[in-house]
Give the backbone structure.
Amino acid sequence: MTLLSKTRLGKIHQQLIALQAELGAQYESGLPASDTVVLDQSKVGRLSRMDALQQQNMAQSTLRNLESRLRRVNRALAKIDSGDFAYCDECGENIELARLEVQPEAPCCFACQSKQEYHPQS
Ligand SMILES: [Zn+2]
C-alpha cells in the first residue's frame, strides 16, 4: 500500500478530479484555435499568414501539452483506484511526497523523471 494516509490520499484524489475537470475545459476551449487556419486571401498578406500559422502551431502544442497532462491525471486516478498511487511507474520506488503535493499527477519519481527529460520519448 501507499505511504500516504487516507486523508492525504483523499485530498490528492479531490485535487486530481478538479484538475481533470479544469484541463478538460481548457482543452475544449483551445480546440477552435488549433483548427485549420482559414484566411481571407484578399485581406491578408504573406506575413499575417505566417503569423496565423504560428499561432495555430502554438495552439496545437498547448493542446498536446494539455492532452498529455490529462493522460497523466487519468493514470494517477487509476493508480489511486488500484492502490498503486505514489509508486513510480519506472522504478517502483515511492514518489517523493513533496513532489506529489505540487504535481499530484506525476507518474514517476524525480530521478526517473530527470532521466526521461534527457531522453524524451516522442
Ligand atoms: Zn523512479
